[in-house]
Design goal:
The complex is a heterodimer. Chain A is an alpha+beta fold. Chain A has 2 domains: about 290 residues, no CATH class; about 150 residues, no CATH class. Chain A contains 22 helices and 7 strands. In chain A, a hairpin with an 8-residue loop joins strand 1 and strand 2. The C terminus of chain A is likely disordered. Chain B has one domain. Chain B contains 3 helices and no strands. The longest helix of chain B has about 40 residues. Chain B is elongated. The mean pLDDT of chain B is about 90. The chains are: A alpha+beta, B mainly alpha. The interface between A and B is medium-sized, with 39 and 31 residues.
Chain lengths: ~525, ~100
């Protein structure tokens, strides 16, 4: 550009941020809530709120679960078990229905659906049948697969937005003359200056997080975005690359057809745990149970390291003897990739660090939101001087309302749908999701049709009320409310209710604040007249 | 010429310049990043898995930097020239490697 370096970077920062800002808002909000994916899912299954499970040893939980699976799916090709953890006290099980059975049911084509059940770790009995919901998985998928479109298309859109965000962050950093001072600068009630300060504070305060999360986000899907390194190194043979990157089972393992009873899981898990210096086992995969060629893969529980590639040990399913394990000798680049991946998904984080990630994610939302608002605030005086609001500004203001104030309404609508739709409704998960998009569409259309200050207030008020009343709704529709969850130490539920209460309070405060602060508006209008 | 026409002409030129720069940045920047990634994957003297991963992760850093260069350069032709100059050695290395593989 013809001006200096700093000005051209400021220009790039503005436009690379603005053009993708509304999608980024969705990605940030959905991604931030995904840090509490399990907790959201639990909240959305109130049938499980009252079941207290007695903690038992992992070996015992595994043996009980295996016994239950022997009854329900002895001929399945594959079982998956997730042993109890701090965040999920029950045993999660999934199994592939036998090939013949699936075909008979007419599900033969495409990927087979896994059956699943939540088991009591002490008895192996299935826990109360909970309502069908996608729970926190909806936000997790929405975060990079969007919705209503083919997955590859969505991932390219998300990738382009993420790259644009990375450009916005990097160019935003270099435009700053005094980044350290911005840490401590906030001048409230000064119109545009205050928005700029708030944008700076939310961006600079969590800058390492923003940079990390954007770059590592691109890393998670990098083989799609930048496949050329792999193509050259592996002569276009992507399969060979992935087989080396994720050394799992020997390719094309088959059942022998010779029956052999499955070895008890307890001793296998104890052996694995000992090999890891006492670290607990997490996921267990049993391939071809009750076959002579059966194998058991035991993966370490999350929370012991940053890497997303967790140590895995393989055992012979008939004898329980250890087999050669795949993940010996990983190189520096492979370790780097898996740590970046692990950092992005944050599954390793303990409660405090997880909360910090969540707050940083919220700061990211605030950064995107204030950036979007700042553009409109800066642009407005020019339009007022000209005597009419131009199309561009009107569009941006409408989209801002729909994204910044409308998305919380949509998220809350999803939670309300979870409790208000009848528990036995057919296609229930899809119905919940359609509440999210219906609410969002209404907010967007209303925002675009009336991009005004009262519209901001109304939508913030609606989002605030819907969020703040979620703890009440929880208690009223069969969930464990705060007076039950706190005394009983059900921290996942207590956390959900108190966080939604706080989010509601912030939105309500914003709505009320917008009602009071009409001074700047009248002053601007006065200047224009 | 009316007043509005004299104002419109530079405005249009400015916009065309921005569009040109954006095209160079988006496609040219990606091409440079891809060329560097491919070259590193081919020439890094480490195991091919390691080389492929290092190359890909580097490419994702090169791309945003290339985009920033395109908007920092004084004129669009200079932006393009800078990209070409950067890509040249990598393209040469790729060509040499490709011939070596073919022979």
């Amino acid at each position: 550009m013809k001006e200096g370096f700093r000005q051209s970077m400021a220009w790039l920062h503005t436009w690379s941020g603005l053009l993708v800002g509304w999608v980024l808002m969705l990605i940030f909000m959905a991604g931030t809530s995904s840090y509490y994916r399990d907790e959201i899912t639990l909240w959305m299954k109130p049938e499980l709120h009252r079941t207290a499970v007695t903690p038992v040893t992992q070996a015992m939980a595994a043996d009980q679960a295996a016994r239950a699976l022997q009854k329900r799916a002895p001929n399945s090709e594959r079982w998956f078990l997730s042993l109890p953890s701090g965040r999920e006290p029950a045993v999660q099980t999934m199994w592939a229905p036998p090939a013949g059975e699936a075909k008979a049911k007419g599900k033969g084509k495409g990927r087979r659906r896994f059956e699943q059940a939540l088991l009591d770790p002490a008895t192996g009995d299935e826990l109360a049948k909970a309502r069908a919901t996608r729970g926190g998985d909806f936000f997790y998928r929405l975060h990079f697969d969007l919705h209503y479109m083919p997955v590859p298309v969505a991932r390219w859109i998300v990738g382009i937005c993420a790259m644009s965000m990375l450009v916005a962050i990097l160019s935003g950093i270099v435009t700053h003359k005094r980044i350290f001072k911005d840490f401590f600068t906030f001048r409230p009630r000064k119109g545009q200056r205050s928005w700029l300060d708030f944008h700076n504070v939310s961006a600079v305060l969590a800058l390492p997080f923003h940079l990390m999360i954007t770059y590592t986000g691109l890393i998670t899907l990098m083989f799609m975005y930048m496949p050329w390194g792999v193509k050259v190194a592996y002569d276009n043979n992507d399969k060979a690359f992935f087989a080396e990157l994720f050394p799992g089972l020997p390719q094309g393992a088959k059942a022998s057809g010779v029956a052999a009873p499955l070895t008890p899981l307890g001793p296998v898990i104890a052996h694995a745990s000992q090999a890891w210096g006492g670290a607990p086992a997490g996921r267990i995969t049993v391939n071809f149970p009750n076959d002579a060629a059966s194998t058991i893969a035991v993966t370490q529980q999350e929370g012991r390291g940053l890497s997303s590639d967790l140590p895995t040990l393989i055992y012979d399913g008939a004898t329980g003897r250890p087999l050669p394990s795949p993940d010996a000798g990983r190189g520096a680049a492979a370790a780097t990739r898996s740590v970046m991946y692990g950092l992005h998904i944050g599954r390793f984080a303990d409660p405090l660090l997880r909360a910090l990630f969540f707050v940083s994610g919220l700061a990211g939302c605030a950064m995107v939101a204030t950036g979007l608002l700042l553009w409109a605030v800066k642009e407005k005086p020019k339009h007022l001087k000209a005597g009419r609001i131009g199309f561009g500004l009107r569009l941006v203001e409408g989209l801002n309302i729909g994204a910044v104030a409308g998305l919380p309404v949509a998220m809350a609508a999803y939670f309300w749908a979870n409790r208000l739709l009848p528990a036995g409704l057919a296609e229930r998960p899809a119905a919940e999701v359609s509440w999210f998009f219906t609410a969002w569409a209404v907010a967007m259309v209303a925002g675009l049709a009336w991009p005004s200050r009262p519209m901001w207030r109304w939508q913030l008020l609606a989002g605030g009320m819907l969020f703040a009343l979620l703890p009440v709704l929880n208690g009223a529709t069969g969930g464990a409310h705060l007076l039950v969850s706190i005394p009983n130490g059900m921290w996942a539920l207590a956390g959900f209710d108190s966080v939604t209460l706080m989010i509601g309070a912030v939105l309500l405060y914003a709505s009320a604040r917008l009602g009071r602060a009409t001074v700047t508006k009248t002053r601007l209008a006065g200047n224009a007249a | 010429m009316t007043v509005s026409q004299t104002q419109k002409a530079p405005q249009l030129r400015y916009r065309a310049g921005v569009a040109l720069r954006a095209l160079i940045a988006i496609f040219g920047g990606y091409a440079v990043a891809a060329a560097i990634a491919a070259t590193l994957a081919m020439w890094l003297p480490i195991a091919r898995l390691e080389a492929a991963l290092t190359a890909t992760m580097t490419g994702l850093i090169v791309y945003p930097c290339a985009i920033m260069w395109c908007f920092a350069a004084r004129t669009p032709p200079r932006a393009l020239g800078g990209l070409l100059l950067t890509a040249l050695p990598f393209a040469l290395l790729l060509a040499i490697g490709g011939q070596g593989a073919a022979a």
